[in-house]
């Protein structure tokens, strides 16, 4: 309705303005709403889980790194599987819906898991499996519902709406904790109810847009053949290398909490700094990527993360956490949707979900290893040396990627 109304208004006034939402299809907006509600649910859990595991259950940095790596890496294989099945069956929406539903049910699984680290690990793995199954088909739907010249804008709008959910999630978690007198189970049950609403929105408002290709053409051999394409292979490898030297979100927030001695009560608010900046910059940086090139913007995001890591090792001034969180938000705004926008045009439409899932899988595996390695470094070397080494590695790889230029302008 908004799109139609703004178009009528522009024609009546004789102007040719093209606001962000006018250039984005209704399907992208619907997917953005699904992601918004889903992220409220998932970020409720994400906001309280690190504190619960480290302070509540007493995990050391290496143990937490292993669990965080599992959380990040459980999607690795199923991303490609989900993308391939969605392309093969030409049912992008159905596969994505199954993934959203599985993640919703896992919120109740956290209630059943109690304080068992092993059970929590299994539930988190299943939750990330759901995320892995849905991510490739969802991003393929966004790509296939958009014009090639405005992919950055489309992904930016989607990620901005997604980030509204990420911003609201910790606030809802804190409200539920306050009303329930600190009951984590109440957070998990509320999270399930919200996730169920997202599945309903997907079923009602998102239209399927499978690539126009015969099923026989979507084979495992065709999927593996994508890696024979030089542009796609180089993009996938460099994205994975950058993921390997990327410090996970949970560690960034734990470093802030440790160095600035932030009270446990305020810990769930830390992701809001990242989410707020991400929300403000997702669309502008997506549009910038469409104009100046998606790879330079993608690398600029990693430079912002490198600066954030350096600040985390600096003097304990009150303003530095704010700046570090802002840079962390810039990192996500410049990388998350921009990478998918860069990968989309070099993947055939009939293999779009599979191709995007391959890129995401490379990142997922790399970030899983990154979490384990950073947790080990923190355990062996202490906090500041681990962060400085991570920042130095990120700077070196980002510089090499700038010279490599795997994506053509």
Automatic annotation (TrEMBL):
UniProt-listed InterPro entries: MFS, MFS_dom, MFS_trans_sf
Signal peptide: none
Pfam families tied to this protein: MFS_1 (PF07690)
Keyword Flavoprotein: no
Cellular component per GO, a single term: plasma membrane
Transmembrane segments: 20-38, 69-86, 163-181, 187-206, 235-256, 262-283, 295-318, 330-352, 364-381, 387-404
Keyword Transmembrane helix: yes
Localization terms from the record: Cell membrane
Protein topology in the membrane: Multi-pass membrane protein
Domain Major facilitator superfamily (MFS) profile: 27-409
A GO MF term: transmembrane transporter activity
Alphabetical UniProt keywords: Membrane, Transmembrane, Transmembrane helix
Cited PANTHER family: C-METHYLTRANSFERASE (PTHR23518), MAJOR FACILITATOR SUPERFAMILY TRANSPORTER (PTHR23518:SF2)
Name by which UniProt lists this protein: Major Facilitator Superfamily protein
The organism of origin for this protein: Amycolatopsis tolypomycina
Classification of source organism: Bacteria, Bacillati, Actinomycetota, Actinomycetes, Pseudonocardiales
């Amino acid at each position: 309705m908004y799109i139609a109304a703004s178009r009528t208004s522009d024609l009546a006034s004789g102007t040719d303005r093209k606001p962000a939402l006018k250039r984005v299809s209704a399907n992208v907006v619907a997917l953005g709403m699904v992601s918004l509600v889903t992220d409220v649910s998932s970020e409720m859990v994400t906001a309280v889980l690190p504190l619960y595991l480290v302070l509540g259950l007493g995990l050391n940095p290496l143990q937490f790194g292993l669990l965080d790596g599992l959380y990040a890496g459980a999607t690795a294989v199923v991303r490609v599987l989900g993308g391939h099945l969605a392309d093969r069956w030409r049912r992008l929406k159905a596969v994505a819906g199954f993934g959203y539903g599985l993640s919703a049910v896992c919120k109740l699984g956290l209630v059943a898991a109690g304080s068992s680290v092993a059970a929590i690990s299994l539930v988190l793995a299943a939750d990330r499996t759901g995320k892995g199954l849905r991510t490739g088909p969802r991003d393929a739907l966004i790509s296939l519902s958009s014009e090639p010249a405005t992919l950055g804008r489309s992904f930016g709008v989607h990620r901005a709406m997604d980030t509204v959910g990420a911003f609201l999630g910790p606030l809802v978690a804190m409200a539920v904790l306050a009303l329930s007198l600190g009951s984590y189970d109440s957070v998990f049950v509320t999270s399930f109810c919200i996730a169920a609403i997202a599945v309903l929105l997907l079923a009602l408002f998102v239209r399927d847009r499978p690539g126009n290709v015969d099923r026989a053409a979507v084979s495992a051999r065709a999927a593996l053949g994508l890696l024979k394409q030089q542009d796609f292979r180089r993009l996938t490898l460099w994205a994975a290398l950058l993921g390997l030297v990327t410090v996970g979100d949970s560690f960034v927030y734990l470093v802030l909490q440790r160095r600035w001695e932030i009270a446990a009560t305020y810990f769930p608010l830390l992701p809001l700094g990242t989410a707020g900046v991400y929300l403000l910059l997702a669309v502008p940086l997506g549009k910038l990527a469409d104009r100046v090139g998606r790879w330079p913007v993608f690398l600029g995001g990693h430079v912002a993360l490198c600066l954030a890591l350096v600040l985390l090792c600096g003097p304990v001034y009150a303003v530095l956490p704010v700046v570090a969180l802002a840079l962390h938000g810039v990192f996500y705004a410049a990388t998350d949707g921009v990478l998918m926008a860069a990968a989309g045009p070099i993947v055939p439409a009939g293999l779009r979900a599979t191709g995007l899932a391959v890129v995401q899988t490379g990142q997922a595996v790399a970030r899983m290893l990154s979490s384990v390695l950073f947790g080990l470094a923190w355990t062996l070397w202490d906090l500041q040396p681990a962060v400085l080494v991570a920042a130095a590695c990120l700077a070196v790889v980002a510089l090499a990627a700038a010279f490599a230029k795997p994506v053509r302008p």
